[in-house]
Structures are given as structure tokens and as C-alpha cells.
Design brief:
about 10% strand; mainly alpha; 8 helices; about 50% helix; about 130 residues; 3-stranded antiparallel sheet
Amino acid sequence: MDFSPAYIGMCEKAVFIQQIWNVAYGDFYCDKSAVFATRDVSASISLVDDKVLIDVMNQGFKRSKAVWLPRQDQLQELLNITEPLAVIQMLNEFLSVVDDDTRRRWTSMEQLLLCAYALRTYKKTWTGADWK
């Protein structure tokens, strides 16, 4: 699972992905208020557990301060590709339409799949700083 500042930034700026987040047990998220308080991204990564779900139901969960960090399996589900060979085929097709500079930016499968999802679903690409 990618908890890098790069992936967190990609997810935070991916409003389209944040809007579809249905908070579920086992989801990872970054607490933006904790990042601001500690300036340490790794200290602000949280896992949705029973307490968080209770807070969500009681509307005590500050969703506006949370950045969902989709796991690889969640991104594959969004892309509707769960079979290994289908993943390989989709990635091969996706990689054929992006340039070398774009490919070099990815350091995890989560980053690659988020970019594939953004391009396929919203026609958006990651510039290294924002979605365009």
C-alpha cells in the first residue's frame, strides 16, 4: 500500500475519487489536520475501524479533513478489472498511450491504477502537480 506524500497528494487533488468514497471498514485515509499538526505524513495515516464507522454514523467523522487512499484492489474494482490477465491487458493498453515522463512519475501500482482510472473515467491526467 502506498502511503507516500506523492500518492497522498494525488488522492487529495483527485476530487473525483474523494466524492465517490463510501467509508468502509479497512479503508486507509490520511487525516489532513494531523499532517498539519505534525508535518509528518506517516503519523497521519489511519485505518477505518469500528470507532471510525461509529463516528461516521453519528456524523462525528470529519470527512472534509480526511483523504481517502484507495488500495490497489479498490482501484481495480473501480476499473472493473479483477482478473489478473485483464489487469495486465488494461495496463498494457494504458501504458501505450502515456509518455515516458508520465511513466517515470509512478512509484506504485496505486499511483498507476489511479491514473488509469482518471484517464478512463474522467479523461484526466496527472501532471505531477495536479489533474488536467
